[in-house]
Amino acid sequence: MAGADWTATERLAVTQLLDDRAGKSPDVTALWLDDVPYTFADLSRRSRAAASALLELGVQPGESVALFLESCIELVDVWFACASIGVVSVPINIANRGDFLAHQLRDSRAVLVVTDDSTLEAVRAVASELPGLRTVVVAGVDSLEGDADAPRPVNAQPTWNEPACILYTSGTTGPSKGVVVTQHYLVTAARIVADAYGLTPSDDPHALELAEGQRPQAATACRCTHPCRAAPPHPGALRLRHRDDVWHDRGVPAGGLERHR
User: Fold this and answer.
1) At 237, is the pLDDT very low, low, confident or very high (cuts 50, 70, 90)?
2) Which end of the chain has fewer CB atoms surrounding its CB within 10 Å, N or C?
3) Domain 14-140+158-243, architecture per CATH
4) Dihedral Cα 208, 241, 177, 130, nearest 10 deg
């Protein structure tokens, strides 16, 4: 890619990138979410805590965790957490309901799904069709914070070429197809996007707002690919906000599934 000063031959896993930034520039703001700043050190600690929580809930490396919720800090936490322990994250369009939702949860073999109050009822409605789904967690209600310093199992230390995510196609001409992408793919894609937008450490933190369908964890990965200054904390951070016109409904625990608290 013209102008890029990196090559795709550099082999890094997603959280190697985050931990590198947290080590070099811990107090630099990496992400604004609903006007709350999070530094690289914050994101690193939060992702380690979420990783421990997933392991405590019985999620094993190689299994899948679905992310079916609005943009929030818990979404970022779990996405990085999955990448750090070799769990495959499965982001799902929050508009999906019924057969579309059941197909993606079943096809991805998700054993745990993270929801919020706008999506929980949709999972409950299809729970009987998902024999492999063991646990539903509701962001903002159920705890996803374990011991950030707990030792990791030997098999929970993924390498650059292991699967990281399953991304589903729109399903306009048939059932959605799951595309498996690796840790290296995500790091490379983040660098390409960051270069395409010309992101630098001194970017105006108000300059980047995510459009519908984009996710804060992807934006944070883009931010991780660029060198960071130790101070001041705010320049170069990404500022993200929820849309104000999102419809919300109130949900209850999915029938027949464990609700973690």
Assistant:
1) very low
2) C
3) 3-Layer(aba) Sandwich (3.40)
4) 160
